[in-house]
Specification:
Elements (H helix, E strand, L loop, with lengths): L15 H13 L3 H15 L3 E8 L11 E5 L5 H6 L25 E4 L8 E8 L11 E9 L5 H38 L6 H9 L9 H4 L2 E2 L2 E2 L3 H14 L5 E4 L6 H11 L7 E5 L8 H6 E2 L11 E2 L1 H4 L4 E5 L6 H13 L1 E3 L6 E3 L3 E6 L3 H6 L5 H7 L2 E4 L10 H16 L5 E2 L1 H9 L5 H15 L4 E2 L11 H4 L7 H19 L4 H8 L3 H10 L10 H7 L1
Parallel strand pairs: 8-15, 8-16, 9-12, 12-15, 17-18
Antiparallel strand pairs: 1-2, 1-5, 3-4, 4-5, 6-7, 10-11, 13-14
């Protein structure tokens, strides 16, 4: 926190919820660059129709015009302006020539109308300062925050927006200062010898590495080698991947279908020394029993009917790289034996040949089955299981990664929008609520399909709750809340059961009572309560005869 913080005016009460949410976002992300897109969206939701542009220096200690700039935007029609924020001083805010609304001369804010008479725009912009050990006098501008309103606001709206913009800058400054202090402390510990391997310093440097601006910036800033997620469960997975990637150990990735096991396998490959080699993926459950050996190990000409030429298998294709065996629990016992030999001897033979071929391919296996249970049932070889289970990694289901659902939803919105040629500006709050409360049995793959469908059916650049599949809908979102009390619903059900029993037993109340498991007296009292005449349900011919 800067020394001028004590002299700041308190924020307006109406802005406190938004500021609290922005502070929560800045605290949640270890990398401030990852938090900026969410901060921009919070500001755009809290203000009148507008676009939000945030630009921040990537290099600590350097001025805004001396370092690489990371622009973030709420993805609107002014997105191209975000790129300009890093090329030259954007407006008067970053020149530090603006109207001051506070008591501290360095804290400045700029409010300006449209540049052309026909433009119904109003711009609010403010600088973001870097921290300095010498105090506020030596602070440099490290970024800027700009809000472009679609129309000239009222005085009340202007003051509220200006207050929100200024306090958002304060929060970003303080979050950035805190991270710089932590990075300095880690570096000092490393230099002092408390971290001889340099792990803390390396990790700090990795956490501050933000990709250069580009069309897929939002997706890359929250991704670990293609895996989207920043929850604690996923951070544990990332740590395991980094630990095992530098070795040649066999890895077994477990998890439900749709949790991203292949992405984890690719991340292990990309983090390893084999990243320059091939990554070969095989879905064991998709290959027929008769051809799986040929696919994995290759075959010689004439080895079987249709083998008109020699063919190398996937193990040979993965030489100097990684071989990913997905759904390995579906392998037949015969193939399990051959795979066990490869893991033990690092060699194999092609189908129809007795020549031994050496392999150095790293094996990464994955399954959504309980292999330990399959071993107990005799469906999977125990020795192969222990050979594969050298370094297990479990991919958590999406329902245990609640913090990642919104990140994934935003990523899939961008991905589907680009693929389908549509522009989706935001996801409505009711839709976000439905995404958060759903249990996601299909995990990340199901979420991607739901978002793609929503992007297709959206016709106003917004994903609403009613754009989501029916399986996600709730009684409230569809307007189908119960219209009566519990007692009323139970009374209706009781009456329906009485009538159904009388119809089945043709008006015989004694047999109807026995069918419902109650006494005949209780049955007749219920008929009197609902004014039901049991004689109406007797066989008409028999009823006329008795009459």
């Amino acid at each position: 926190m800067t020394s001028s913080a004590a002299f700041r005016k308190p924020p307006q009460p109406g802005n406190l919820p938004t500021l609290f949410e922005i502070q929560r976002i800045l605290t949640f992300y270890s990398d401030i660059g990852m938090a900026l897109p969410s901060c921009a969206r919070q500001l755009s939701k809290a203000l009148p129709p507008c676009e939000v542009l945030i630009s921040l220096s990537l290099e600590s200690g350097k001025a805004f015009d001396q370092a690489t700039i990371l622009p973030e935007t709420s993805r609107g029609k002014y997105k191209n302006l975000a790129m300009e924020m890093g090329k030259a001083p954007f407006g008067l805010a970053v020149e530090n020539e603006a109207l001051s609304l506070g008591q501290i001369e360095a804290d400045r804010l700029r409010l300006v109308g449209g540049q052309q008479p026909q433009e119904a725009l109003f711009v609010i912009e403010a600088p973001i300062f870097s921290s300095s050990p010498k105090g506020d006098a030596d602070r440099k501008i490290s970024g800027a925050l700009c809000v472009i309103l679609d129309a000239t606001p009222s005085d009340e709206q202007r003051h509220r927006a200006a207050d929100l913009v200024q306090w958002s800058c304060y929060l970003i400054e303080e979050a950035s200062s805190l991270r710089d202090s932590l990075a300095g402390q880690r570096l000092a510990e490393q230099q002092a010898g408390s971290d001889p391997d340099g792990w803390l310093g390396q990790k700090s440097q990795r956490s501050r590495t933000i990709p250069t601006p580009g069309p897929d910036l939002a997706s890359r800033s929250i991704a670990f080698h293609g895996i989207i997620g920043a929850s604690d469960r996923m951070k544990e997975v990332y740590t395991l991947i980094e630990q095992v990637a530098g070795t040649s150990a066999t890895v077994l990735i477990t998890g439900e279908s749709g949790t991203g096991k292949e992405l984890a396998a690719k991340a292990i490959h990309e983090c390893s020394k084999r990243s320059g080699g091939p990554f070969v993926a095989v879905n064991c459950s998709a290959l027929p029993e008769g051809v799986i050996e040929s696919e994995l190990f290759g075959h010689e000409k004439g080895a079987f009917t249709g083998a008109i030429a020699a063919r190398q298998g996937r193990f040979e294709a993965a030489r100097d790289g990684s071989l990913f065996l997905d759904e390995i629990g579906d392998l037949s016992p015969a193939v399990q034996i051959k795979l066990l030999r490869i893991l033990q001897e690092r060699s194999f033979e092609r189908v129809g040949d007795n020549k031994i071929i050496k392999t150095n391919a790293r094996i990464i296996a994955a399954t959504n089955r309980d292999l330990a249970g399959a071993v107990k049932q005799g469906k999977f070889r125990e020795d192969l299981y222990f050979r594969l289970n050298v370094f297990p990694i479990h991919m958590p289901p999406l329902r245990e990664r609640g913090a990642d659902i919104l990140l994934l939803a935003d990523y899939f919105v961008e991905k589907s929008s680009a693929t389908l040629g549509k522009t989706i500006k935001r996801i409505s709050s009711p839709a976000l609520d439905l995404l958060m409360i759903y249990h996601w049995p299909g995990n990340v793959r199901e979420l991607e399909n739901c978002i793609e469908r929503a992007v297709i059916v959206s016709n106003d650049n917004v994903i609403h709750a009613y754009n989501l599949p029916p399986s996600l809908q709730s009684a409230m979102s569809t307007g189908t809340e119960p219209s009566s009390t519990l007692d009323g619903s139970m009374a209706r059900l009781e009456k329906e059961m009485l009538v159904e029993a009388l119809k089945i037993e043709r008006g015989n109340s004694a047999r109807a009572a026995r069918r419902l498991g109650i006494s005949e007296r209780r049955f007749r009292l219920a008929l009197d309560r609902y004014k039901i005449d049991y004689r109406m349900y007797r066989d008409s011919k028999a009823f006329r005869t008795r009459m």
